[in-house]
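In this supplementary section we document a worked example of the pipeline. Step one takes a protein sequence of length 276 as its only input; no multiple sequence alignment statistics are reported here. Step two produces a three-dimensional model, which step three serialises into structure tokens for compact storage. The input and output of this example are shown verbatim.
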Amino acid sequence: METKNVKSAGKLLAVLECFSSVDKRLSVGEIARRTDLPRSTAHRLILALKEIGFLEQDRSRDEYRLGIKLFELGSIVLNNMDLHREARPFVDALTVATREAAHLCVFDGLRMVFVERSSGGRSGENNATITMESSPCHCTGVGKASLAFQPPAVIDRVIGLGLSAYTRNTITDPDRLRAELEQIRERGYAIDRGEIEIDRNCVAAPIRDSTGKVFAALSCTGPASRMTAERLAEIAPLVVNHADSISWRLGWRRDTGGGEARPRRARTPRTPAALS
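The serialised model returned by step three reads:
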């Protein structure tokens, strides 16, 4: 009975995983094809998910979308996450240290979901919020910092969905993106030079859970006029150290061949060219 229940739950999850920020509405036939289930079985699972509010039917057509109940549960998850509780002081501290906006985002498998923002800095404001707003992975600092440390299959899936151009600086070539992700893995942080907003630059670093898996990222963002190559090089070690400190608070320990290691100190690049 237990095995049967697990299989049933797995099928329900498979239906939910058909949806994404790209595939917002799907028909019964599309879901059946994606889950490799008989159409009758897929329809039965869809009706069950609809009954509990996990799916909603589009009245104008025979299609379904994720239900508001999932949004409510997601909001609860974000509010109760150790990441939210442990990271807030470091997000605020990064803003104070750099006088630029700081963003904390979680990787959802395809995109980055904003968890914390600290927009203090030059304006003197310091407003943080929890939101379900998301951003792409291939052209944001937090996105590339997270994507670089994912398994090849995840990187392939993100690239397979298409690399949309947001500005003239957006990386849209898969090979070029893969090369940049390799650079990020080597240096430990990512740079966004006007790739999603032409007049804004940022530097971001990955955040790990207790197992060492990268599931989030921390960034520092500002106008391109202030966030020059020299300024990005100056801020990069601060962002890495704050991100590593959050990882430390979440239970991550760097293996040093014995005992536990404190968060590392990032090396400042010798020249701004190292950020390209």
